[in-house]
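Help wanted!
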Amino acid sequence: MTMPTSTLWGSDSDQQVTCISCGETLAREDAREYDKYGDRWEREGKTFEYLCKPCHREYCHQNREGLEEALVAADAGRTDRTKFLRRFCELTTESAKFD
Ligand SMILES: [Zn+2]
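Answered by r_m:
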């Protein structure tokens, strides 16, 4: 990262998004859109969640249904980032336990 972030949301071609999994900030064009609600386009905001490529790849190899449940359970997009990421982390860690 060499570019300053002062122009965040400055233009469509230079938009930055935050990975909902690791919190990494990356260019929107490099991110993977993730709509945890699938086809619920009528919901308020119509905002997408974003995953960086490493996380997206990781989740493709994991139980995606579990991720969706965790995202919804953690109130993704309806609570502040820090709180959401903490809850999401707890939920995914919990579901990763085998005993
Ligand atoms: Zn990530």
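OP: Thanks! One thing I noticed: The mean pLDDT is 70.
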